[in-house]
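New to this. Please check this record:
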Amino acid sequence: MIQLREIRENPEHFIDGAKNKCESVDIKKILDLDLKWRSLVKKSEQKKSTKNKINQQISELKKSKKDSNDLIDQMKTLSKEIKNYDLEISNINIEINQILKWIPNPPHKSVPIGNDSSNNKVVKIWGEKPKFDFKPKNHIEIATTNKLINFVAGSKISGSGFPLYTDQGARLERCLINFMIDHNVQKGYKEMFVPFLALEKSLYGTGQLPKLEEDMYFINKDDLYLIPTAEVPLTNIHRDEILNINDLPIKYTSYSPCFRREAGSYGKETRGLLRVHQFNKVEMVKFVHPDESYAELENLLADAESILQTLGLHYRVLSLCSGDLSFAASKCYDIEVWSPSENEWLEVSSCSNFESFQAKRSKIKYKENSNKAEFVHTLNGSGLATPRLMVSLLETYQNKNGFINLPEPIKKYFS
């Protein structure tokens, strides 16, 4: 979490950061509690010092066989006072930490200031919109006609938002995942295969909890959460560790299913693959030196973009405004791929720099020789999420006969 020392030193930074992220956090209350906490600690320490002196006096009196009852009574009174002080100090600590959990990571100075997605800035457009000499079908028609996805059966099994990929559709989904994993490994990422369930402390470390608890699937009997992204287990590989500076940057990639209740998505488009509760994604995570994190963010973005470029899909890159940033991110780029049928852009990747926010929550540091250990910076990016990638792929490469002419990089995975 944000450290109290940082707030003491620069409260305006966190007040402005929360305001620009449209988050309601009472920074003044933390500072008031902090003043009260420090005052109580000082009083408690003074009482403890007095108690130690009296204890020494009692010892000396007992050695000389003199009466020490008055001092013993003072000791008892002091012990009660110290106990009350320490209890109040502990309660204030709990209250401060509870508020600290809800303080968002302030946006980086380069992030556009704005309340919602209308203030996001387009920083790049790649390729051109596909053109057709026939009326293109949408992904639901294509997937259903070619028996690639059975939305009805998926709903029968698990409810809406759980697509069932069938036969060639299942194979295409697997091929996309394999292609992206191989692509990322060629970019220098180490492949991992992660657990799909995570402890509360793991989700707290990456910033999903407590902010996004309503979006999580929770298994009450085991106190475990279904992961919303492989970012969670990948980042927690190094929780409570001190890394060697010579090992940085550390780069991981992993496939995982992702589980999201989408509690805040009411009113948004949910047809077909546009918004689902379970989907597949390949993730990229980096642990980097703080001085290199923004250069590494640009590299991460380029790595995610290169997947779409290899597939020949039209896309754009947005720099998210402050109000559209996640709770934990300092800066984020969204990559949106073009859907010919929807006639709109669909997000397939978010590439974020969390600076030291996740590292502080997860206690991930680096050290060089005998120098003091410092917090690393963490980054993550989708490389990529498959549902909307599948939408764009099916719609972009459809022909008038209703079949799909897959791009060459994917074709070879079918051979």
About this structure: The chain has two domains: 4-100, 117-411.
